[in-house]
Write a structure and sequence with these properties.
about 260 residues, four-stranded antiparallel beta sheet, globular
């Protein structure tokens, strides 16, 4: 079966600067949940930007559904991949419903939204428990509520892949768990960066660990998040306690 997302020998770096990402090769199957972990500066966000067609690889190929992402037109790619980023809209005057409706733009035919578009938007609002906020200006919402709006906008794209950059950052513990459970239940391919290793271990089918722009682990959480790998990736001394139902991580500075 063709992977939904596939990277082959991918390198990337800013124009006229050295590579930040080096020789990335991995694939993600339909319905798989992949967490990308690593220290600040490891290249996690740069990797995500390759997946949602924000930046092209300097070398190598990114494929969606077996096709080169950069041979697709942008709207076609956006019907397959939706992104939820840490940067949020700056037009705070738009309502929650208007923000979510932006997710329909890749599907839009003609001048205005159709009946199907409106139905999809309302379903996304319900799924993210945002109906009560639908007519509220985006700027009046809390950080956690805004994050849920951005996920609802991505769902309105009806993608096959959803890419998220630290989606739990602005959420309290309950909403972190609720969001991750919802993402798991969508049946979509989910690729997300997560700095919380406990959440990554509990949520993901696979964990890809980046260190200085290279993959140093790509395996199920129990195999990827070992003491040795964590120590290398984060430059700390790590302990993993697997005696309970879920692993517990503890860290110390070297020395």
């Amino acid at each position: 079966m063709t992977p939904v997302v596939e990277l082959s020998g991918v390198h990337w770096g800013p124009k006229r600067q050295a590579d930040i990402l080096h020789d990335l090769t991995f694939s993600v199957a339909a319905g798989e949940v992949l967490a990308i972990c690593g220290a600040n500066g490891a290249g996690k966000s740069s990797l995500l930007r390759l997946l949602y067609r924000h930046q092209a690889p300097r070398k190598g190929t990114v494929r969606l559904m077996g096709r080169d992402l950069w041979l697709m037109k942008a709207p076609e790619a956006a019907r397959i991949v939706a992104a939820v980023l840490q940067e949020q809209p700056t037009d705070f005057a738009l309502t929650t419903r208007q923000i979510v409706a932006l997710g329909r733009l890749p599907h839009r035919k003609g001048f205005g939204p159709g009946t199907l578009d409106n139905a999809v938007v309302e379903a996304a609002l319900r799924r993210m428990d945002l109906t009560a906020f639908a007519d509220r200006p985006f700027g009046t919402l809390s950080g956690g509520e805004r994050q849920r709006v951005m996920v609802a906008r991505a769902l309105a794209q009806e993608p096959q892949v959803i890419v998220l950059d630290e989606p739990t950052n602005h959420l309290d513990i309950r909403h972190q768990l609720e969001l991750l459970a919802l993402l798991r239940g969508l049946g979509l391919t989910v690729i997300t960066t997560l700095h919380d290793l406990t959440l990554a271990a509990d949520f993901a089918d696979r964990v890809l660990v980046l260190h200085q722009g290279r993959i140093i682990a790509d395996a199920p959480p129990s195999q990827a998040l070992t003491e040795a790998t964590i120590a290398r990736a984060f430059n700390v001394t790590a302990r993993v306690d697997r005696s309970g139902p879920a692993p517990r991580f503890s860290f110390q500075l070297h020395g």
